[in-house]
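Human: Cast an eye over this sequence-structure pair and say how the chain folds.
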Amino acid sequence: MTIPSSSRFSQLRHPLHRIAGGLGALLVLALGAACGSDDTSTEPIVTANCPAASGASSGNAMTVLGCGNFKPTRTTGEIFVRGSTAYTTTWGNPSAAASVFYIWDVAGNTPTLVDSVKVDNATTLGDIAVSDDGAYLVVATERTPGAIVIYSLSNPRQPQLVSRFSNAETNAGVHTAEIGRVNGKLYGFLSIDPLGATQAKLVIVDLSNPASPQQVFSQTIGSPYVHDTFVRDGILFLALWNAGVAIWDIGGGGKGGTPAAPVEMGRVQTANGEVHNIWWFKDPSSGSAKYAFIGEEGPGNIGVSALGDIHVVDVSNMAAPREVAFYTVPGAGTHNFSMDEPNGILYAAYYNGGVRALDVRGDLGSCPDAQKSTPRNQTLPLCDLSKMGRELKVGLKDRAEPVYIWGVQFLNGSVYASDMLNGIWKLRAVSR
């Protein structure tokens, strides 16, 4: 997940180097001391009321259930929710404050802060993810020395440090660390920042023994970044920024690939590049796995504007994937995705554009000319999901104050959104 920056890429080594904005006050406040090294610790939190509705809610507004607000102490990054517990990372932490991730009780409508965990040797935390069995939490750290930090979730509200994986390959910074199983074994897929003359790379780590992670693969890849990954059924999708989207067999694609020796199956260049994130949709109602949704992240101004479309890629032939449709929001850009797959609804974090809920079931690549538009900087018209009536609801655009939504997660009838400016939100999911 991209970490916006008010500095140039050459200084901070992050793709969204064109973002600027008024987060200075959020980033320079030092917090009270947090005890322990990579351990649980409570620190003082400044609470505030969440932005109220503007009174101009439209009929397609998602229902806001509540907000866990702790501005202006920290800037919220990624979110992961399991059961009644949510975890959020913090971005751009001053060295005097160290990096922290937060633990929230989200059983009720209003998320309630439970605790915080200090992460040493990190100025920014990117991804945070829980293993599919709920046993472990993995946090990616930047900048140098980059690492992943693994915690036991024997008690989900009190993560306990198990190990920290860092080597020369990860030193530049682990921007994202997605986790997933391949043939029953847990792996981490680490997107490593470029640093100076060192190019970006993908590192794959065997996490089957979380106390002793083992690197099994590394490859320089991306132009100039490898930004994120998506793994499902032994197939790995890679977001390679201006090098497009690559699809690898790592154990399920029939090409003989493994996590230690991936085999490329196909590649596609989506409109305008800047490939940031991916979700490959597998519809449980039909078994169809025809479409992958690709997030493009362009320039932005924190709290004000962003740029970047959702690109729909037909991957029914993975050797020749092709872009067939797109979704755009004027003046706003997408970031991360989550899906309610049983209902065929894609939820997209859209920075200043709030949360977007899209109907993505059925045929997305065939439409009459009246439902087509030409993506920015392109000449070939494609199906436009807005003109096709695929936008179901919009969340958090009816607030009186700005939002800047980094991440979303659908779970058990609710949608959770991390907001760089205002903490985290809980919304009611769209019903069919």
In short: Residues 291 and 314 are 5 Å apart (CA to CA). Helices lie at 9-12, 24-28.
